[in-house]
Design goal:
This protein is mainly alpha-helical and about 150 residues long. Helices cover about 75% and strands about 0% of the residues. The relative contact order is 0.10.
């Protein structure tokens, strides 16, 4: 192997490694955190919303998020109160009542979610209704905030 062949092979290897490095960096996921706009994009794509529907949908999303944030704050306050009773000797009755209250707020959250999807359904045109019905079969997958489990090591 002469010097020129070696240099050409080296240049090709370096160019390939640079290309692979760029692909790796650009294709890198965002630190494993879920994309908060992914569900929104999926709904828009699957229902084939037009621009006006997207605008109306964004208004629904903003209101839905406001309601859920308020209810999440209530749950957080109730949990803080519940856990503050861990040092009490007679904490059973207060913990039971606080647990019931947390359950009631969680029920309200689920009702807000359900009403949100009813509102989305109302945005759909008649030809989009079959797409909405198909979407309802995937709702728990789309709106799950859990990241997939990491791969198992052997």
């Amino acid at each position: 192997m002469n010097k020129n062949t070696f240099k050409i092979a080296l240049i090709i290897c370096l160019a390939l490694s640079n290309i692979l490095l760029v692909i790796f960096i650009v294709g890198k996921p965002n630190d494993g955190r879920p994309d908060p706009d992914r569900p929104k994009r999926m709904v828009i794509e699957q229902l084939h919303f037009d621009e006006q529907q997207v605008t109306d949908y964004q208004v629904l999303i903003n209101e839905h998020r406001r309601q859920i944030r308020a209810l999440d704050q209530q749950i957080l306050a109730l949990k803080n109160e519940l856990y503050s009773h861990l040092t009490d000797s007679n904490s059973k009755s207060s913990s039971d009542s606080l647990s019931v209250e947390i359950g009631k707020v969680q029920q309200q959250i689920e009702q807000v979610h359900f009403a949100h999807f009813i509102d989305i359904k109302k945005l759909c045109k008649p030809e989009q209704q079959p797409n909405f019905e198909a979407l309802t079969q995937e709702l728990t997958k789309i709106f799950s905030h859990k990241a997939p489990p990491p791969p198992r090591r052997k």
